[in-house]
Amino acid sequence: MPEARYRRIADDIRHRIANGEWRTGESLPSRRVMAGEYGVHHETVNLAYTLLRRTGALEGEERKQVVVAHPPAVRTLTDADAVWPYSSETTDTRPRPATEELAERLGVPVRTMLQHETVECLDPGGRSALLASTWWRGRRQPHVAFSAELDVVPLGADQAHALGLLVDTLALRVVRTRLDAHGTPVETADLILPMDRWRIRLSG
Predict the structure, then answer these.
(1) Which of 61, 108, 168, 191 lies at a 20 to 30 A Cα distance from 49?
(2) How far apart are CA 31 and CA 65, in angstroms?
(3) Taking the CB of residue 173, how many other CB atoms lie within 10 A of it?
């Protein structure tokens, strides 16, 4: 019963963390070392580590060193148009052709070339708190209002890597579209927020 075995190992590691064997930010032994300790194949330990990463007990990239996760700061998003108050890094500025969804959101033909940027917003401890990908046509225009819609999406590979989560982990997505004085969309954005770090309370 390999599945039951890796889940039992994950539970045991969770208890050992709770008992102080490894502290927050401390590296766990390698998968091979832990496999020897538990008397299993290292892939079984890898499954346990993956489960613990998915549930937030550990953090680190797939197949690499893992550490005991810091409890995430849980923030509440009340204004989807607010300026991020901490540091941020722009990670991608490549123009993109408008997909059907983006074309509908901006009121442009499909495959219109759009300006684009993805910004990784960091919390005070330097951990990625959210990703904001924004698209607009031509020069950036001022806005006077915005609309926001909330849904849930699986993370793609780049998003998961930036946020320290697993591919296909579900995350909150706020679709924010900025409008000019005539109500015409001037830019649209996807705000990707990990569920373990955010609550949403939108008004408007």
Answers:
(1) 191
(2) 9
(3) 19
Give the whole-angstrom CA distance, residue 67 versus residue 34: 14
Query: What is the fold, at CATH topology level, of the domain defined by 75-200?
Result: Chorismate lyase (3.40.1410)
Q: Please give the C-alpha separations between residue 149 and each of 45, 80, 95, 188, in angstroms, as whole numbers.
A: 40, 10, 24, 11
Which phi and psi angles does 54 have, rounded to 5°?
-65, -35
- Residue 122 corresponds to which tokens in the numbers above? 């960091």
Is 138 in contact with 106 (CB distance < 8 Å)? no
Query: What CATH number does domain 2-68 carry, 3.30.390.30, 3.40.605.10, 1.10.10.10, 3.30.1360.120?
Result: 1.10.10.10
Residue 174 pairs with which residues in a beta bridge? 150, 191
pLDDT tens digits for range 64-121: 788 998 777 788 999 999 999 999 999 999 999 999 999 999 999 999 999 999 999 9
pLDDT of residue 155: 93
CB 189 within 8 A of CB 149: no
d(CA 17, CA 69): 10
Which tens digit of pLDDT belongs to each residue from 49-71? 988 887 778 887 667 788 998 77
What average pLDDT does range 126-139 have in this prediction? Answer: 91
